Amino acid sequence: MKSYEVNFDGLVGPTHNYGGLSYGNVASQSNSQQFSNPREAALQGLAKMKALMEMGFTQGVLAPQERPDVAALRSLGFSGSDAQVIQQAAKDAMPLLVASCSASSMWVANAATVSPSADTADGRVHFTAANLNCKYHRSIEHPTTTRVLKAMFADQRHFAHHAALPAVAQFGDEGAANHTRFCHDYGQAGVEFFVFGRSAFDTRYPAPQKYPARQTLEASQAVARLHGLSEDGVVFAQQNPAVIDQGVFHNDVIAVGNGELLFYHEDAFLNTEHMLAEIHDKLGRRGGRFRAICVPRAEVAVEDAVRSYLFNSQLLSRADGSMLLIVPEECRGNERVWQYLQRLIADDGPITEVKVFDLKQSMQNGGGPACLRLRVALNETELAAVNPGVIMTAPLYDTLTQWVEKHYRDRMSETDLTDPGLLLECRAALDELTKILKLGSVYPFQIN
Q1: Which of 252, 344, 345, 439 has the smallest number of Cβ neighbours within 10 A?
Q2: What is the CATH classification number for the domain harbouring 56?
C-alpha cells in the first residue's frame, strides 16, 4: 500500500496583523506595528499550496480561527455585547485586544504533533493539539484547533485525537515545530525526533539566558506516551540554548528533516554527535539509512539563518528519490545563504533543487514555509478517510482565491483591530469557509 506525506497548510486569517506579540521571534518583534495586508498574505499562502499541488504533492488546507476571540476577552473581565467587549478592551487594555486578534494560527506547524499509524501502538494516526502556553495569544488556539482537526480527520478507525497537555510551564508544547520523523518510507515504522529547549524538572539541562525555551522535555515525553510510541522509535534531543538566545525560538528555524535526511546548522543542538549516532542506530534497525547535512557556521552564521529562514523550509521527497527544498524569497536576498544553496545543489547530494516562494507577509511576522504547514503521513486507506473538502484541487484553489478576494481587507493596522465590524467580517468569512471545506460547525459563534 502506498503512503504519502501530506502537507496541510494554514490558511491565513482575515485579521493578519503585525502585533509584535512573539518575544524571542526576531522578525515578529522587528516588524511590530507596521501595516499588514491580510489579502496578500492569504493569496501568497494559497499560491504556495497550488504550486506544490501542481508539482504532484498531495496538499491540504487547514482553516484559520475566529478573531478577535471575544470569548477570551470575556474570560478576562470584559462584558456587554460583542461590540462593547471590543470597545472596552480597546480603551482599557489594547495589548489584550491585539492578542485576541492575532492570526498566528496560520502557522500550523504549531497546531499539533502528529504520529503516523506505522509508529503507534494501536495502528492509528495520532494528533495532540499543542497547548502553546508560552504566549497568551497562541494559548487560546488549541480548543478550535482540536475541533478543526477532528472535522478533517474524523474516522475513529484511523485517527485518534488527544487534548492539549496541561497549560502550565512544565508542559510547554509547541507542536510539530519541534518534531521531525525519519523513515525509509512513509508507510514504514520510523524514528520520531523530538527537540526540546529545556527540562522543567531536571537541572542538568542548561537553559537559555535571554529568550524563553518554549518546548520542554517533559511535554515531548508526554506526547510520545500519548501516541503509543516505542522507545526504539523515539529520540529526544536538546536545542542549543545559545541559538535560542539568537532568535531560534523553534527547532524548525535551525533544522529540517524528511525521510532519511536531517538538514541542520552546526550550532543547532547540544551533544550533536551522540544524537546523530542514536538516530542512525534506531533508524537502521527499522530499515533506513540515516544521512545528515550539516551547514557550517563558517558558511552560514546563525544570524543569517534566522534572517533568511534557510531552515524554516520544506524538504520534500520526489518519486525518483531526490529532494526538493522550498525556501522563502529572503534566502535569495541573503548573499551568503544563496551562495551556500547553490553549492548544496551542485554537490550531487540528496537535495537536488531549490524553489523560492514569496511569503513576505508571513515572513515579516516570523513564519516561513515550514511554519505554514503541518505534515501528516498517511497510507492510501487513511488518505481516503480524510475529509475530502480540505484536499487542495484546482477548483478549490479558485474558490478559496475568490473567497479571500471577497472577504479580506488589503490593509490592517492596530487601529483597525478596534473596529467591531471586523469581528462580523471574520465570522461571515469563516461561516462561508466551513461550507467550502465541509467542516461543519467548528467555531464558537457557530456552536453557541
Answers
A1: 345
A2: 3.75.10.20
Catalytic residues: 174, 250, 371
User: Would you say the pTM of this structure is higher than 0.85?
Assistant: yes
Q: For helices 420-436 and 394-407, what crossing angle results, to 10°?
A: 170
DSSP secondary structure, 378-446, as one string: EEHHHHHHS-GGGB--HHHHHHHHHHHHHH--S-B-TGGGG-HHHHHHHHHHHHHHHHHTT--S-SHHH
Task: Identify the three-state secondary structure at position 272.
Answer: helix
3-state secondary structure 22-85: CCCCHHHHHCCCCCECHHHHHHHHHHHHHHHHHCCCCEEEECCCCCCCHHHHHHCCCCCCHHHH
What is d(CA 82, CA 73) in angstroms, rounded to the nearest whole number?
A: 10
| Domain with 101 in it | 1-107+372-448
Residue 409 placed within a domain: yes
Query: What pLDDT does residue 23 have?
Result: 46
Q: What does 314-353 look like in DSSP terms, one character per residue?
A: EEEE-TTS-EEEEEEHHHHTSHHHHHHHHHHHHTTSSEEE
5, containing H or E segment: strand 3-10
C-alpha cell at 156: 475513529
Domain membership flag for residue 367: no
Strand (E) or helix (H) holding 305: helix 302-308
Whole-angstrom distance, CA of residue 436 vs CA of residue 427: 14
Q: How far is CA 337 from the centre of its chain?
A: 23
Q: Which residues, 6+ apart, have CB-to-CB distance to 409 below 8 Å?
A: 14, 38, 39, 416, 425
pLDDT less than 50: residues of the chain: 22-29, 31
Task: Give the model's pLDDT for residue 25.
Answer: 46
What's the CA gap between 81 and 95, in Å, rounded?
Answer: 20
Residue 361 within a domain: no
Count of all residues that appear for the chain in the document: 448
Output the pLDDT for position 27: 45
